[in-house]
Amino acid sequence: MPKGSDDSWAQKLYNTHLKTCSLFEKPRMSNKAFIIQHFADKVQYQCDGFLEKNKDTVNEEQINVLKASKLDLLVELFQDEEKVTSPTGTAPGGRTRLSVKPKEIRSGASSKEHKKTVGCQFRNSLAMLMETLNATTPHYVRCIKPNDLKFPFTFDPNISGMLSLSLTLMMSLSLSLQDQDKYQFGKTKIFFRAGQVAYLEKLRADKLRKACVRIQKTIRCWLVRKKYLRKKHAAITIQRYTRGHQARCLVKYMRRTLAAITIQKFQRMCVQRKLYLQKQAAALVMQTILRAYMARQKYQGLLRNHKAVFIQKHVRGWLARQRYKRSLRAIVYLQCCIRRMKAKKELKKLKIEARSVEHFKKLNVGMENKIMQLQRKLDEQAKDNRVTSERLNSLETSHAVESEKLKVEVSKLKGIEEEAKNNANRVTSLLEELERLRKELTTTQKEKKTIEDWATKYRDEMEKVRDVVG
């Protein structure tokens, strides 16, 4: 109804359904509304704006655009009705086409083209579908899988479903009348023999009674459950408070136990600390005595070693001097022997030369001078050797005396230096020990003060507890 109005549409509904349909009614005070009797109650519908809300006209320009598409599917779907050959509007390929051809212009109407709506198109397509369905004969073919192995003429009841189907039929037939002689179907009614209606009423009453019992059972169950939940909530609340009280008592007991354990711990710590300090002092005294004894032993060993080294040094020096003196005497003796041998050779030559008279006469004067010079040289040499040996002996004695004095002085200086080092080390160790003892005394006084404060607090708390208990 693209050109109608809401009033004309309402009048058309009144004329069409008011006298023919019992579920359609007209309100008394309105000509633009209608009433439909639904299963629950009557519902009144207003016609104002109904046509405007349901306008579904198809725009011809849009249809032409779809017809001009390059897709064959869209062109095939929007063919004109003149090109449709099958009565069902189905193309040879099996697709359903949409008929969009507008209606012919009536004689005497305006030159304006009448537009087709989507609802009209749907109505025409549905009519064509019903026409096709009515022209066909249905065939029902059931495809079953008789067994998992797909063997012919073998039926597995678990797969074919016949067992469940038979059970379903038995359950449904148990509620119906078994004897067909008690009733008979007519064209529009069912005819019962005498007493069957009462039997059906009895079955209905039994069904209602069972439903009533079920409702009562459900309500009683709900009431009892609600009562049970209240009791359960109350029991849980009591248990919660009881457990809370027990937990608080346990915490209080644990705190008291922890306090007692702490007191015992500090008391035992104090006793053990006193024992430890006593043992530490005794151990320090023993260590001091032992270290002093070991130091004396070590000092004596070092002193013996030093004396032995000193003796070895002087003995080795004396032996070296004796070897040097023997070597010097041997050297002097060898020099004398060599000189004597040379003198003898020279004497032999002189004797041989002296045998010749002429030569003796010629060299007599010269030989005498040479002999005298040689004798003088021998005397001077002997004198020099004696002086040198005496000087060497005096130098050795003086050197030995000086070395002895120096060694004595060095030993004294070393002893004094070692004694000074020992005294310095001893003073340093004594100062460190004194500082450590001062620190230990300070820490001991602090711990003693802490323990006394803690003992005072504990006595005050115990007195308060006794006052509360008393």
3D structure, described in words:
By secondary structure, the chain is mainly alpha-helical. It folds into four domains: 6-100 and 117-134, Methane Monooxygenase Hydroxylase, Chain G, domain 1 (Up-down Bundle); 204-343; 356-399; 435-470. The protein is 71% helix and 4% strand. It has helices spanning 6-17, 50-53, 60-67, 72-77, 118-134, 157-160, 162-173, 196-355, 357-469, and strands at residues 24-25, 33-37, 42-46, 183-185, 190-192. The strands form two sheets. The chain has a three-stranded antiparallel sheet. Mean pLDDT is 78; it is low at 84-113.
Question: How would you concisely characterize the structure shown here?
Answer:
The chain has 470 residues and is mainly alpha-helical. It has 9 helices and 5 strands; from the N terminus they run αβββααααααββαα. Helices cover 71% and strands 4% of the residues.
Summed up, the helix count is 9
The whole-angstrom Rg is 75 Å
Average pLDDT confidence is 78
Instruction: Work out the count of structural domains.
Output: 4
Major sheet: size, sense and barrel closure? 3 strands, antiparallel
* Largest beta sheet: strand ordering: 1-2-3
Spans of at least 5 consecutive residues with low confidence: 84-113
The amount of helix comes to over 70%
Secondary structural class: mainly alpha
What sequence of helices (H) and strands (E) makes up the elements?
A: HEEEHHHHHHEEHH
The count of β-strands is: 5
Which shape, going by the Cα principal axes? elongated
Strand content: under 5%
